[in-house]
From TrEMBL:
Domain Rab-GAP TBC: residue ranges: 416-610
Coiled-coil boundaries: 165-269
Region annotation Disordered: where it falls in the sequence: 24-79
SUPFAM superfamilies per record: Ypt/Rab-GAP domain of gyp1p (SSF47923)
Biased composition (Low complexity): 24-36
PANTHER family tied to this protein: RAB GTPASE-ACTIVATING PROTEIN 1-LIKE, TBC1 DOMAIN FAMILY MEMBER 2B
Keywords recorded for this protein, A-Z: Coiled coil, GTPase activation
Protein name: TBC1 domain family, member 2
The keyword Coiled coil belongs to this UniProt entry's keyword annotation: yes
GO terms for cellular component: cytoplasmic vesicle; cytosol
GO molecular function: GTPase activator activity; small GTPase binding
PROSITE patterns noted in UniProt: TBC_RABGAP
Length: 680
């Protein structure tokens, strides 16, 4: 870098961005003069000049008499002392062009020199930026090191840094080895493909040549059979020649038979190879299933091991040494990143493993990740594929408008809709429930959006405040500048104008957001919200009084007292009001309460069967975790557990539809109406 700052002795110590105004003006005048004379010019970029060039800058002027002593003067003296003017046309043209070319080359050389210096300065700036970044990182590390209290904490920081560096080096080496192995396998496959292509090309050429010979001989044979005398006389074939042709024909027939035999042999080989390939494919598939089963078993064993460690961590019967041992085992178990076990987000942008607020919940998060991984491995080859095949068979050959309510569709919806067909089926169910409104007002959504732009709604401020609180853990709504937030804003404003009785209620933003994620269309999401509020949910569910929501809470308490008496008695003993937890479940249909996989399956059945699905799943959740809740004997801990226990449910195969034990809601709607009248 020091060498870049050193200038040549003939140059002044000036920046490469210095500009001399006099030179600029001179270059402008020279450009105008030379352009009039049709001589090419080059703009002089600012650069360090020699002392001579600064005193007298170069000028190119062919209209005025030249002051350069090397150029012949414009007049000469006569013997009588008088001067006679010379004609400018008699000046040597070659001398002028030589001077112009010399100046042009000199200016180009200076331009190249300046470009190289600018490039060197840019490289210097880049190096300084890199040095500044490394210095900032070092400063940050030093600040963390100095902020630690005591030598032991600083030593732990240093050890942590060394461990991180060692892990990174190990990962780099592993990735290098994998890259080399992949490159070798790729080169081998490329060589094998090239060899096969060359063999195929050679066989095609041989086949084409043989086909031509066969066609030619067939034509000749046809002519001979048609008129043997004419063909023989016209060709003047002697007996010897005819005999040779017959021998050649026999030999060709023998070759054809040989080729047929060879073709049969090759076909049998191809059949055998195909059979071997199918067997190997089946073996590979069975091995993959076995590997998935073993990996799922490993995940289950590891999750059980972590569960035992968690119980040991919570117990108070261990001494100090045993607690240190348990703490060390937990730290070793948490060294593996959760992202290596399971991907962080699903196809709709939902976070698969929630970020728990308590630091001690990291162990629970790891256990949950292992359970999700185990369930996915066990279901991906059997459950998901069979369900996808059933939906493919049901929807095959049907248009979106041909779907109809049927027991078969109801059973499929209870098992859940595959991601490939969920948007199509949801759109059909929404269109079915809003068909009359859409026929009366086909352009309703566009009209409401235009009205929202011209007239501010009273609830627009509250909608704007709730936008940034909507699905904060989802990828599509986590950024303030996300396009999904603007789409959600338009949908909520349009619904507020469409339903003035409800307007806007907190909770509608989450319903509309989930509809946007699945349907991927603003108008479809708007009609989906209309379907939920005006068709699926009871009356006054989202009004200011929330009468429908309160009625559902009383209904649910009665069902819990009937079906879960032990749990209800336990909650009443510790003065726990379960409606503080379940009210939000019913209001937003479990959005942000259940994992995304189970949440979407709840909505699949909810669009078809209505609110009784919410009751069934709520009772199933409490039944699923009843024993765990009964073990807690502190009201604060019970509330804390109820706040997040739904996110720990990982097995979506357990459904509250398939047993008679959970078929308890045969009179839910009638009971809801009765409680609503009682509240009023």
């Amino acid at each position: 870098m020091r060498s870049l700052l050193v200038r040549r002795p003939s140059q002044e110590r000036r920046s490469i961005f210095w500009l001399n105004s006099s030179l600029t003006d001179t270059s402008k005048t020279d450009t105008s003069n030379t352009s009039s004379a049709n001589i090419p010019t080059i703009a002089v970029s600012p650069a360090p000049l020699s002392p001579q060039s600064e005193v007298q800058p170069p000028k190119v002027d062919y209209e005025k008499p030249s002051d350069d002593p090397q150029v012949p003067c414009s007049s000469f003296s006569l013997p009588n002392g008088k001067k006679k003017k010379c004609n400018s046309a008699t000046l040597p043209i070659d001398r002028k062009e030589a001077n112009a070319l010399e100046r042009t080359s000199r200016l180009q050389q200076e331009k190249l020199t300046l470009a190289e210096e600018v490039k060197a300065q840019k490289e210097l700036v880049w190096l300084l930026h890199k040095a500044l970044e490394s210095a900032q990182l070092e400063k940050r590390a030093c600040a963390e090191f100095l902020a630690a209290e005591g030598e032991q904490e600083r030593l732990e920081l240093l050890r942590h840094g060394e461990r991180c560096a060692a892990d990174l080096r190990y990962q780099v080496e592993r990735l290098k080895r994998e890259n080399e192995a992949l490159q070798r396998s790729l080169s081998e496959r490329d060589a094998h493909v090239i060899e096969l292509q060359s063999n195929i090309k050679l066989l095609m050429e041989k086949n084409q040549a043989k086909q031509q010979v066969i066609v030619k001989l067939s034509d000749e044979l046809t002519e001979c059979i048609a008129d043997p005398q004419r063909s023989i006389s016209s060709a003047s074939i002697s007996k010897q020649t005819f005999r040779q042709m017959s021998q050649e024909l026999d030999s060709l027939k023998d070759d054809i038979e040989a080729y047929k035999t060879q073709n049969k042999f090759l076909n049998s080989e191809i059949y055998q190879l195909t059979k071997l390939w199918r067997n190997s494919s089946e073996q590979e598939k069975s091995l993959m299933v076995k590997c998935a089963y073993l990996e799922a078993s490993n995940c289950q064993m590891e999750s059980r091991y972590l569960g035992v460690l968690r119980k040991l961590q919570d117990t108070k019967l261990l001494n100090a040494q045993q607690r240190d041992t348990v703490r060390t085992l937990i730290e070793d178990a948490l060294q593996e990143n959760i992202k290596d076990v399971i991907k962080e987000f699903d196809e709709y942008g939902f976070k698969l493993i929630p970020d728990y607020e308590v630091e001690d919940m990291k162990l629970l998060s790891k256990i949950q990740a292992l359970e999700i991984r185990s369930n996915n491995l066990l279901q991906q080859d059997i459950g998901d594929k069979s369900l996808l095949a059933r939906w493919t068979q049901y929807l095959g050959g049907r248009s979106p408008d041909d779907l109809a309510l049927s027991p078969e569709l109801k059973g499929l919806l209870r098992w859940g809709i595959p991601r490939e067909y969920r948007r199509r089926v949801w759109s059909w169910m929404v269109r079915t429930r809003t068909k009359s409104d859409r026929e009366r007002h086909p352009d309703l959504f566009q009209q409401l959006c235009e009205k929202s732009l011209t007239t501010p709604h009273p609830a627009s401020r509250q909608i704007q405040l709730d936008l940034h609180r909507t699905l904060t853990t989802n990828q599509h709504f986590s950024s303030p500048s996300s396009p999904a937030l603007q789409q959600l804003h338009r949908v909520l404003l349009a619904f507020a104008w469409q339903n003035p009785e409800v307007g806007y209620c907190q909770g509608l933003n989450r319903l509309a957001a989930l509809a946007l994620l699945v349907l991927q269309n603003e108008e479809d999401a708007f009609w989906c919200l209309v379907t939920i509020v005006q068709s699926l949910m009871p009356q006054d569910y989202y009004t200011k009084t929330l009468l429908g929501s309160q009625a559902d809470q009383r209904v649910f308490k009665d069902f819990m007292a009937e079906k879960l008496p032990r749990l209800v008695a336990h909650l009443e003993e510790h003065n726990v009001d379960v409606s503080l937890i379940t009210f939000n479940w019913f209001l937003v249909v479990f959005v942000e309460s259940l994992p995304s996989e189970i949440l979407l399956k709840v909505w699949d059945a909810f669009f078809y069967e209505g609110t009784k699905v919410i009751f069934r799943y709520a009772l199933a959740l409490f039944k699923y975790k009843e024993e765990d809740i009964l073990k807690i004997h502190d009201s604060t801990e019970i509330y804390q557990y109820l706040r997040f226990f739904t996110k720990t449910v990982t097995d979506s195969s357990q459904r509250p539809f398939n047993t008679n034990k959970n078929r308890i809601l045969f009179s839910v709607i009638r009971f809801q109406e009765y409680v609503s009248r009682k509240i009023c």
